[in-house]
Amino acid sequence: MTGYLIRRVIQAGIVVVGVTIIVFILLHLLPGGPARAVLGQRATRVAIAAFNKEYGLNKPLPIQYITWVGQLLRGNLGFSFKLNQSVDSLLSENMPRTAVLVGISTLLAVLIGVTLGIWQAIRRNRIDDYVLTGWAFLFYAMPTFFLGLILIIIFSATLQWLPPTGPDGTVPLWDQATNLILPVATLTLVYVAFFSRYMRSSMLENMVQDYVRTARSKGAGGARVLFRHVLRNAVIPIITLLGLSLPGIISGALVTEALFNYPGMGLLFWNAAQQQDYPILLGVTLITGVATVLGSLVADVLYAAVDPRIRYA
Amino acid sequence: MLTNPDIADDVIVPAAIGTSLPEGGEAGASGSLLRLVFEVFIQNKLAVVGVGVVIFMVLFCFVGPLIYHTDQVHVNLNQTTVAPNLHHLLGTDNVGYDEMGRLMLGGQTSLEVGLAAALLATTFGVLYGAVAAFLGGWMDNFMMRIVDAFLAIPSLFLLLFLATIFVPSVPLLIIVIAFIAWLVPARLIRGESLSLRTREYVQAVRVMGGGSRRIILRHIIPNAFGTIVVNATFQVADAILLVAYLSYLGLGIPPPAANWGQMLSDGVNYTFAGYWWLIWPVGALIVLTVVAFNFIGDAMRDALEVRLQRR
User: Fold this and answer.
1) Given an 8 Å threshold on Cβ–Cβ distance, is A145 in contact with B283?
2) Residue A14: which of B145, B261, B294 has the nearest Cβ?
3) Does residue A144 contact residue A187 with C-beta atoms inside 8 Å?
4) Residue B311 in this model has a pLDDT that exceeds 50
5) Nearest by Cα to A189 from A108, A122, A103
6) Which of A144, B167, B270, B309 has the fewest Cβ atoms within 10 angstroms?
7) Three-state secondary structure call for residue A86
8) Which of A114, A161, A113, A104 has the alpha carbon at shortest distance from A135?
9) Is residue B138 within 8 angstroms of chain A, CB to CB?
10) How far apart, in whole angstroms, are the C-alpha atoms of residue A281 and residue A285?
């Protein structure tokens, strides 16, 4: 296990370095380079030259990269001149809110998705299986903002049960828990389909394995085989799937936050994209990249802890 | 190199059964594809529905304007947000374009971008993955870590970022989406190639003097063709959704051009004004198209799995 852990951590480290290199390249891909990104499109040549000298941008690229990474390691992600606030303070405000949204939605999506998947596998090729599969395809194919809009039309405009906007971030989240319901529901519904479809096929795959026949021949009943044997084996790949789906869920959170005006990292990024506030764009891209690497690392380690076949492979 | 006596059996067995097509020698790409499509149709009614929907969409968008004539060039500010009537079957939008005609025009862009981006991403991804697998060693490692790093950044963030740098036109949008979408096929094909590379027939080709290029292009890629096509089908669906997201977030193709995503996000502004014809028809078209491509992809994957099991 230790060997596997070390290998996996090193691999994650390399990917994190890769992410920083990509962001560094994006930084230099900007029209006019980093100086224009900060000083704006109308900056004079003198101002740009002075800026480049002050921030060491006239040095060779590898040295710039190392300096930049050194800054990152000290927690300096840059400064948004448009919002007059450092990117790390902006992130520390907004990231927890995204973490709440993504965390609750993912948890609910997995719980509901796995339950539905089991149900569909037991009732396969019957009417309720077909109906649930139909819904899964429908939610899966719906643009997130369209799904959220439909929920707003139903629950806010027509029934008037829930507010149409997310929490505004001025008070603690739990004081506006009702505002959180629709954003969470939107993000959850898309990914329920994702997990239930996978769980269904994973269950079906395991139901025809030899160990099921062995358990049966030893006299284990249908329910016991299903829950003690099949379910335990079928649910393991969901952990990997969770790690793999993390970037997608965070992308979904961006659209959800934009629709419900929920001040998380996605909304921050979106506003920054519209105003071409590059320090924020770069900082958020970097942090989401690193966060997903860590997320899939945790998923993989959990997977190896649950399933010994992985770590000895 | 060929010391394993079992190899003779392996070559003979599939030929004797006569069902497993691409096992030996050079697989005809079109042959395995046709067979795959054929199997899909026999086994899966949903796939038939999917293909039907896609054909309908193509006819609607590309042949529709020849039958249903509308003015999609001049705005008509005297006739904005008119409810559906006999002249305008689905009413008009906020600047007076006929909504039905607009759906046809917007659909052309959405379908073109979806198909082209999927094709570009798949082609590049397949070549990249196959080359990485074939080179092996540290080059493979290096190439795949690049893929991992790009995959770690949530795609919508990268897409929005690129959209702020390059103001999207249709060709640029295709390239930007393909730039994000090529990662998955690259990974898939690399995995597939790694297992195909060790197969006996590849070793046989090598013994007979076939070079790397020949092995990749004429043996590995054709044999991975099923996987490639299945993935490409999902790519089309994803690309159509990505265009919709980008438009909704205000960084899509700028206004005079139309696409479904743009139309839906415009319609969203009128949620509480009661202009239902600006929301539901275009929403339904997007969902139907994406579902259709997913149906086709799923059915093909099932058919492929059945075939793999039979091997």
Assistant:
1) no
2) B145
3) yes
4) no
5) A108
6) B309
7) strand
8) A113
9) no
10) 6
Could B153 and A29 be called an inter-chain contact, meaning their C-beta atoms sit closer than 8 Å?
Answer: no
Return the H-helix or E-strand segment holding A80. Answer: strand A79-80
Residues 6+ apart with CB under 8 A from B168: B176, B246, B251, B252, B253, B254
Residue B216, CA atoms < 13 Å, CB-side half-sphere: 16
Cα separation, A220 vs A69, in Å, equals 58
| Residue carrying the six token digits 């997130």 | A144
Chain A residues with CB inside 8 Å of B290's CB?
140-142
Instruction: Name, in order, each residue with C-beta under 8 angstroms of A227's C-beta and a sequence gap of 6 or more.
Output: none
pLDDT values of chain A reduced to their tens digit, one per residue, 313 residues: 778 888 888 888 888 888 888 888 887 777 667 777 677 777 788 888 888 887 777 778 888 888 888 888 887 777 777 777 888 888 888 888 888 888 899 999 999 998 998 888 888 878 888 888 888 888 888 888 888 888 888 888 788 888 877 777 777 777 777 788 889 999 998 888 888 888 888 888 887 778 888 888 888 777 888 887 788 888 887 887 888 788 888 888 888 988 888 888 888 888 888 887 778 888 888 888 888 888 888 888 888 787 777 665 5
Q: Is A125 helix (H, G, I), strand (E, B) or coil?
A: coil
- The answer to whether B309 faces chain A, any CB pair under 8 Å, is no
| Residues A29, B38: Cα–Cα separation, whole Å | 47
Q: Which ranges in B59-98 belong to alpha helices (H)?
A: 64-67
Residue B41: pLDDT over 70: no
Q: Which of B7, B37, B95 is nearest to B296 (CA)?
A: B37
Query: How many CB atoms neighbour CB A16 within 10 A?
Result: 18
pTM of the model: 0.81
- Name which of A14, A22, A296 is nearest B150 (Cβ-Cβ): A22
Q: Which residue has the tokens 């060039």?
A: B73
Sign of CA dihedral B58, B60, B65, B67: positive
Q: Which two tokens stand for residue A5?
A: 């852990």
Residues 6+ apart with CB under 8 A from A237: A198, A202
> Chain A residue closest to B154 (CA)?
A247
CA dist., res. A109 & res. B133, Å (int): 35
State the Cα–Cα distance between residues B297 and B255, nearest whole angstrom: 32
Are the C-beta atoms of residues A193 and B290 closer than 8 Å to each other?
no
Does B163 sit within 8 Å of A140, measured CB to CB? Answer: no
Least Cα distance to A70 among A84, A80, A56 occurs for A56
d(CA A183, CA A77): 29
Output phi, psi for B109, to 5 deg: -60, -50
User: What is the Cβ-side half-sphere exposure of residue B168, based on CA atoms within 13 angstroms?
Assistant: 29
Q: Which residues pair with A80 in a beta bridge?
A: A85
Element housing A236 (H / E): helix A231-260
- Among A206, A201, A198, A196, residue whose Cα is nearest residue A228: A206
Say what the alpha-carbon torsion angle A250, A254, A260, A262 is, to the nearest 10 degrees. 80
Tokens of A121: 């596998």
Which of B309, B300, B305 is closest to B39 using CA atoms? Answer: B300
